[in-house]
Design goal:
Blueprint (H helix, E strand, L loop, with lengths): L24 E7 L5 E7 L23 E5 L2 E5 L6
Antiparallel strand pairs: 1-2, 3-4
Length: 84
Amino acid sequence: MDDFPQFMKHPANRIAKTNQATPGVEGYIFDGADGSQMAFWSCRETAVSAAHAHDYDEYMIVVQGCYTLVIEGSGFHSKPDRST
């Protein structure tokens, strides 16, 4: 998968660059009828996010490339699972 499908990249769903914690990232957000939210991010370069926290649970799935999440100084590496 080199990019998200076009229907997911509708301009109305685009997250403003001023609301992103990481440079070089493009994001799109979708709101569920139950108040839930999903955000899809593409990062086309090596980047570092500013330290930040959320008052909600956050789940991540890597579909291509790799991602390192740092929590309290410990790094967790994530890559796509190609076993299926």
